Amino acid sequence: MSKEQGGIVKAWENTVRKSQAIAKKRANSIFSTMSVAHVDDDNAGAPGLGEIYHAEKVLANGDFYTGHWAGNLPHGHGKYLWTDGCMYVGEWFRGKTMGKGKFSWPSGATYEGEFKSGYMDGKGTYTGSNGDTYKGSWVMNLKHGQGTKSFANGDYYEGDWRRGSQEGHGRYQWKNGNHYIGHWKNGLINGNGTMIWANGNRYDGFWEDGLPKGNGTFRWQDGSFYVGVWSKDPKDQSGTYYPSGSQAASFDWDPQQVYSVDLNDCIICPGEKISILPSQKMLNLPGLEAELLQKQSLWKPMKHTDASGRPRRRSVDGRVMNVAEKNSWDMDGDVTRDVDRKSTVDETLGNLQNEDLEPRGQRLRQMRLQPPKRQGETISKGHKNYELMLNLQLGIRHSVGRPAPTASLDLKASAFDPKEKVWTKFPPEGSKHTPPHQSCDFRWKDYCPLVFRTLRKLFKVDPADYMLSICGNDALRELSSPGKSGSFFYLTNDDRYMIKTMKKSEVKVLLRMLPAYYNHFRAFDNTLVTKFFGLHCVKLTGAAMKKVRFVIMGNLFCTEYPIHRRFDLKGSSHGRTTDKPESEINPNTTLKDLDLNFIFRLQKTWFQELCRQVDRDCDFLEQERIMDYSLLVGLHFRQTSFNRDAASESCTPNHTPSKSGDSGNEAARLSRADKDQLLFDPSRWETIKLGINMPARAEETVRRGDAEQLIGEPTGEFYDVIMFFGIIDILQDYDISKKLEHAYKSIQYDPTSISAVDPRQYSRRFRDFIFRVFAEDTD
To answer: What does the pLDDT read at residue 534?
Structure first.
């Protein structure tokens, strides 16, 4: 123990002895004022509390307080010593620890950081008595948000926390050099992630309760790898070994060694339990008791069952709460509030509900929306496209798994030749290069295979992960209806990739622009243009002789955030509204220009980068004579309370959100800082990229008069959103059919309102529109 700490303890012990003696002599008085000194005139008053002054107070139970005082309550900066050895030094507000402070335990553990209403809440550092140190976000005494933890044994974790445990995305580094990067749940490795051992071996795939479970790949340092379905039960384990180019095909290795040997040195350190929480250290102050009684009269009495007889559970600090209130912590780490019950969060922050409202009359509003449903129909046996899916998966597995030399990013012109394609026969009985299969006889074509292999490398796509996403045990999902072009769309089970069937003309356009497309992606990391990962064709043999061409693209909305609204924006007005009745519109409905009722406000640096990149992307598309593209926008509304009841109660997409009935459903009126802390997971900042995971404010607009007015007038009503956006449908050139469409529609409608215009005009109109839809957030 340091001299300073020893001095503090000694002084505290003396103070306790003195205070206990004074308490005995003055048993008829709760407080004894030892000394009083007025503070500066600038702080001489507190609203509703009277004069602020410095005081030293001794409580009847022996506790001791010294610091600023007002209205019989600690208010300002002060120190509180409990007789059990706990101590708090920091800021107070009306008798509660509020602001920055330090709490010390007799064991030697300390917390230094932000407090709210007696809780460790905000940014703070906890150092345990065993040497563990956590630094990061807290909500109501729980690690919640982004944080790092250094363990006494040398291990280290950095990432997401939820309700006190690792949950979300995080990185765990063991002292021996092993490390894991991926998803967690309830303090255990769970979901998709990568374990890398100190010897260079690694496992990429799915986990469950700390062990590999499901699709995964084990890779050796020499480049060989094993792909399969993993399970601790050997009966459920299956897979295929792929040797490196320099290794013989025979290899004696049991996948169960990963469970019995490799993972023995990858034990997660348990967390230290806090013996007593700051919020449990109640103060014996008459002024505070009166204030609490006044607040409690507004709340329901505490019972072990609620009015409906549902069980209630105790929170970490001993208070009782509804079991159903666990749902207050939603999947994104946000804290929401139901209007028909008082949750722990509401009780804790009740004194903040009417303070520090939004500046300049701006109001952040809360939405009530239906939870999005998973898109698509699973293609199972008996589906009309089941064999096509099998053919596609067989072909992808063959193309990606085929040995190939390491590709340089500097490709020769011959690699982009449209005639550069590889045909492979897939007979059902198998061949020298293909496995036997249960589908029909077909032929498989790879277009410009070297270019797309290099693009996948440029996009940092791991070949094994790519193969697992498309060709794993999970089936693809077919979207309910084909697009306007007649193309069909399929989604991989993990939502990473979208597969689109193509017309021959679209294939020609993509092959023609492929050199410029490749160079554009090499030059600009932040490009918003659609990513293409492969271009292929399946040709059925026999009587059908059917050809199906398709491209594999990145799914813009592959995110753990539910997408509540999606818009397809072109900058034209003719026919640019949804053709569905309001009753059929849901979060999966793609709305159009005239359905848009928001302006999206980005931070200055992101807005400037958006403008630069839209200019670059439009220049590229204009040079390639491309038109009819659009900006696909997805919105996740923070502070959303889902309505799981009648759809009539939820707001309709093209009037998002409805103003009627909102007042009774709004969340507690907190300050911007409080909302950011409770409702926004700080770890998301690490994954923000232009068009991906972008925090923004959506300002509601309203159209007055002209029904075809593209941008409505701002209303001053704001919503905190997470945005996803990118430029899609970039394979339509200004061919003869589009020229005829332009000539025909120009006679009937305003030529500036139609979509079919020449690429230069289209590019100019598109930019102008986007620069009006997006704006710099000056607040």
So the answer is: 94
Distance, in Å, from the CA atom of 251 to the CA atom of 240, rounded to the nearest integer, reads 11
Residues 693-696: contacts with CB within 8 Å, 24+ apart?
693/559, 693/561, 693/722, 693/724, 694/602, 694/606, 694/722, 694/723, 694/724, 694/725, 695/603, 695/720, 695/721, 695/722, 695/723, 696/600, 696/601, 696/602, 696/721, 696/722, 696/723, 696/777
What is the C-alpha separation between 719 and 601, in angstroms, rounded? 10
How far CA 565 is from CA of 291, 554, 637, 657, 769, in Å, comes to: 44, 19, 8, 11, 19
DSSP 667: P
Q: CA 621 from chain center: how many Å?
A: 31
Residue with tokens 């607009």: 701
Q: Is the pLDDT score of 394 beyond 70?
A: yes
What separation, in Å, do the N-terminal and C-terminal C-alpha atoms of the chain show?
49
pLDDT exceeds cutoff 50 at 449: yes
Partnered with residue 70 across adjacent β-strands are 73
Confidence class for position 614, pLDDT limits 50, 70, 90:
very high
Residues 216/230, Cβ–Cβ less than 8 Å: yes
Structure tokens at 384: 């009309």
> For residue 13, is pLDDT > 90?
no
118: left (phi over 0), alpha (psi -120 to 50) or beta: left
Distance CA 144, CA 162 (A): 4
Q: How far apart are CA 182 and CA 179, in angstroms?
A: 10
Contact 55, 49 (CB under 8 A): no
